[in-house]
């Protein structure tokens, strides 16, 4: 059942404010992000007309109505989804995530997620500090990125792990390393990309490198090393295997940073679409493998941290999954 509409009249002290900011003050239980989404969904009216511009300047006497949608079930359902458990004790577990598994429920992915699997695997012991939609989730990997992920089983473990991820390993033992296969060969075989990230102005579902002084700019630092170089049919270098170590952990960070320096990940449907013609330089066999590769070539290979309860420093490594091994074989001219 829908909740009743909320009616407001803009008073003098809120006049001249952005509409989303004024509404955030009037309805502190809703974030500005949520209010913006409601506006775009047509759930907010201003003086009887749809209010779809969050930046609209309010005027004293404006009448605003917000119609909240019906609440959704907050608790995801447990589902018996197989998990590859690398380590587990009563405080946490470390998983090796396959490609195609979404970490937590979201629009379009209410079931079949890692959270659904964790609820079945761990039951009520999972931490809820991240909110009921993300029990136990300390960090995340993109749907089609494979590799190591740590999950907390209770709030104490969650807080200890979250503090390490917030520190990005600058003062502690947290370590995260990814293996990526990218188009081209970076000019420097070992370097650092220090470029802040924010939401793309052109594509709202993407991230982008943005100016440091932009309001939503967030520090993003990636260190990379070139581990191997692959050549095309004529012997010219065409792709490379990198190890990327994160000093920060932003959404799509490696994918955006590598595209920013002109070396996007092979198979990346979002940030490498302009590089599809590169496959024309490969042998027929290699081209078929690369063209059919269904995801960004990115794998979370190394994860190390201090155990939040025992204080032991623990370290995990995950070998490349079969699809990335096959992709490397194709690029090397070794087609099975």
CATH superfamily of the largest domain, by name, is Pseudouridine synthase
**Ranges with pLDDT <50 over ≥5 residues?**
none
| Element order: H for helix, E for strand | EHHEEEEEHEHEEEEEEHHEEH
Report the end-to-end length measured between terminal Cα atoms. 57 Å
Task: Count the domains.
Answer: 3
Note the total helix count. 7
The total beta strand count reads 15
User: Could you estimate the helical fraction of the residues in percent?
Assistant: 10-25%
Describe the global form: globular
Corresponding CATH architecture of the largest domain: 2-Layer Sandwich
Biggest sheet features: 9 strands, mixed
Report mean pLDDT, rounded to a whole number: 89
* CATH topology assignment of the largest domain: Pseudouridine synthase
How much of the sequence is in beta strands? 25-35%
CATH domain class of the largest domain:
Alpha Beta
Structural class: alpha+beta
Backbone CA Rg: 23 Å
